[in-house]
Amino acid sequence: MKVGLRLAIAASLCWVLAAHALSYEGLVVKVKDGDTVTLLDSDKRSHEVRLAGIDAPEKKQAFGQRSKQSLSDLAYMQKATVDFDKKDRYGREVGKILVNERDVNLEQIKRGMAWVYRQYQRELSKEDRVLYDHAEGEAKLSVRGLWADAAPTPPWDFRQAQKSD
Which listed residue (58, 93, 107, 136) is catalytic? Predict the structure, then answer.
């Protein structure tokens, strides 16, 4: 086999492997806010994980502390599985967190503690896009969590307003 062909095959295999999510287990040791946690894996390595497909209120925003508490109730000091396939510009792994096989990202939306992050929704599986959209609609109709606010401000708008000040 020629060297060029070997390199092309090797590059293709790397691309295929990179396109699939990585998965590992760890213990959630810190909840930073309503959409970011820190896990320790079995080798005691720390991983900061941003929950994929959702955006929670900022800490200083209405429902920010309640969203953080909700995520804490779901995941803090729990064994979790993380499925991720990318890192964000801050070096955090972006992924789905499962505790006892329960999608924590989805649960934050169901509780009205996070929005579907539509800007990054295309990065979710089709199934998760449908589930997350449906959960957000149900939370709005039920006036749960942040949807109890007459005009909840999405965190991306809140952050933009903070930059303008």
Answer: 58
